[in-house]
Amino acid sequence: MDTEIIWTLNDFSKLFHRIRNGNLLTDVDVSKYKFFGPKEILMLTEFFVVQNSKQINASLVVGEKNGWYFNAIDLIGFCNTNYENPVHQKQSSSTAIPIKRIDITTMNAYIDDALNFFSTYCIGKDTTILSIGISEIINNVNDHAKSAYDAYIFSQYYPKIRQIKFAMSDLGVGIPETVNTYFSSKNESRLKNGDALRWAVQYGKTSQSQFYNKGYGLANVISNLKGVGTLEIYSNDVACRLRNNYLSYFQNPIPNFIGTLIEINIDIDNLEQYNTTRFLDHWLS
């Protein structure tokens, strides 16, 4: 059996290439990869879920430094049981919520779980951005995915840097393709993929006009993240990043990429203090 070695972010293109051409018979060696955040975890998850859906039993080769981590979050256990029907994994890590398959029908339950889980690390802080970020990226994926394998979400708290990171991904058609399908339905000219992504993150722009996001979607997340966190979006062959309150666009550094992946990082120390008086005034007015 072949072995694909993942050294850098760019190397995940090897896994997407195999998904595209159907050559899934390979082990994956991540023993030399330095740091696995939520986005890396979800790209691995997608590959192993697709492998399992084809009844291919392959191995994840890990190193001494990251082997314990994959056991703690039970990545392989999730992939082995979630390629047919969603199954909720038991909590196995003190800082991470298990990987989950998710859609808008399970969105509110996941938001409640996340707020309860992370509240112990955000005492006295306003965590509104958590619920906004999770709900909007779930809505966005529901709008754009059209994936045979649903969507996946993974969240973790990093105590040394006091950050909450969460990501959601799918193997669907991607944001640019969905935007251009919308333009085609209106007999309007297609946009270049980069321009289509720019269009999608503007206020009031939606290709679906769903009642639950009213076109605010990603623009709402970006607005609320400024000053408190960062965001990365990878979709088709383009990407964008919010960092230092500046949104930049660039070519996707992962060739052969399929679908959409969104990762959000929140700096807990930059969150506003929770204002009980303001909260009561809002609900009693």
- In total, the number of strands is 10
Q: What is the CATH fold-level name?
A: Heat Shock Protein 90
How far do the termini sit from each other?
65 Å
Total separate domains: 1
| Strand order across the largest sheet | 4-5-6-10-7-8-9
Overall structural class, as computed from helix and strand content, comes to alpha+beta
* Unreliable segments of 5+ consecutive residues: 209-215
What summary fits the major beta sheet?
A: 7 strands, antiparallel
What share of residues are in beta strands?
15-25%
- What is the CATH homologous superfamily assignment? Histidine kinase-like ATPase, C-terminal domain
> Judging by the overall fold, what is the CATH architecture?
2-Layer Sandwich
Kindly describe this structure.
It is a single chain. Mean pLDDT is 86; it is low at 209-215. It is globular and about 55 Å long. Helix 6 (128-144) runs antiparallel to helix 9. It has a single domain (2-284), classed as Histidine kinase-like ATPase, C-terminal domain (Heat Shock Protein 90), CATH 3.30.565. The protein has a 7-stranded antiparallel sheet with strand order 4-5-6-10-7-8-9, sandwiched between helices. Strands 1-2-3 form a 3-stranded parallel sheet, with no helix packed on it. The chain has 285 residues and is an alpha+beta fold. Helix content is 38%, strand content 21%. Strand 8 and strand 9 form a beta hairpin. The protein is built from 10 helices and 10 strands.
